[in-house]
Amino acid sequence: MKITFPYMGTSHLVISFFLKELGHEIVYPPVPSQKTLSLGVKYAPEFACLPFKILLGTYLEALELGADTILTSGGCGPCRAGYYGEIHRRILHDLGYPVKMIILEPPLVSPRDFLHQLAELVRPKGWLNFAKQFRIAWAKLKVLDELESTLHKLRPLALSKQEITKVYEEGLELIDQARSVKEVKAALEEALSRLHNVPIDPYCQPLKVGLIGEIYVVLEPFANHDVEKLLGEMGVYVHRSIFLMNWTRDNAFGYGEKDVRAAAVPYLNQLVGGHGQNSIGEVVRYAEQGFDGVIHLAPFTCIPEIVSKSIMPAVSRDKGIPVLTLFLDEQTGQAGIQTRLEAFLDLLRQKRMKQEAS
Ligand code: SF4
């Protein structure tokens, strides 16, 4: 089979490695662009959320390149994500693409279904090979997160923002080339050392901002107009609440997010789907950790984040932390995002100055 998958942050480096080593031919979709989104918007229901539209556009582009199978994840709980694989499949079939969808559901929710879908992927080279490659893929997942969080710390301090981004991309390349756990660890060491060699301003005291919201728009730079990079280049330390590793662990093994959810309980005491409850808990935690502010990313029409947005003013007031919610859809432009970020950062700087003066 000729298999493809959607982009989400750096996850493609792990997924493509894994699929190749399991014995599959991969069709890389183009990196999401305006063309991808336009395609998705054209064929998706109007009320669908932004991730649905970008994914649909990505699938259409990959199918044009010859893919016949799509690997994607499922979902559970009160959010539409659980239906997306099936709805995508029906739209693509109606458009004349008899594509096969492999939808990996969270293993703890439907273990039989998960194993059945996984077996399809494992078939060409067997389970022993799967176990071996899984270890390497897991190691890659871990080091990609470490490299990215180091970038977030160093980018606001770097004297040349362009240089640090280039060095980071070289680091990704090193990790991509690694073919064993030992090589993955060595690649990380080399990449970190190169990042730490980029000259920085050691006296810089950057604003500290937490980045929260729906997973796809938080992780995928195209969906959020590269907000992390924009902020880093404006001299802000961005702490992202979601990384690939913690998301995979939470989804696969069901642990890791309990503290965040507990922090949300005084304001929202039940799951509302997606990352809605987490968004509230994360604001509470960022306030407790002394962050200057929080940026909340939400796809337009995303019910979980609409719920959290409606509670956000109360959390922000009680905890004394400013929160900026950015709703994202196909109409959102980078200039608008940049203007809103600049205004928000001005507010945070004034708040910090007042605190320092008192
Ligand atoms: S969490 Fe929101 S954006 Fe994500 S799939 Fe669900 S409804 Fe769509």
Account of the protein in words:
By secondary structure, this protein is α/β, with parallel strands linked by helices. It has 3 domains: 2-123, 3-Layer(aba) Sandwich (Rossmann fold); 136-154 and 157-204; 206-358, 3-Layer(aba) Sandwich (Rossmann fold). Helices cover 58% and strands 11% of the residues. The protein is built from 15 helices and 8 strands. The longest helix is centred in the middle third of the chain and has 29 residues, at 126-154. The mean pLDDT is 94. Iron/sulfur cluster is lined by residues 49, 51, 79-81, 214, 216, 273-274, 299, 302-304.
Number of helices: 15
How many strands in all?
Answer: 8
- What's the average pLDDT? 94
* CATH architectural designation of the largest domain: 3-Layer(aba) Sandwich
The end-to-end distance, rounded to whole angstroms, is: 65 Å
CATH C-level of the largest domain: Alpha Beta
Order of adjacent strands in the largest pleated sheet: 2-1-3-4
Q: What is the total domain count?
A: 3
Radius of gyration: 21 Å
- Uncertain segments of ≥5 residues (pLDDT<50)? none
Report the β-strand fraction as a percent range: 5-15%
Helical fraction:
55-70%
Can you summarize the main beta sheet?
Answer: 4 strands, parallel
**Cofactors and ligands:** iron/sulfur cluster
The SS-based structural class is alpha/beta
Order of helices and strands: EHEHHEHEHHHHEHHEHHHEHEH
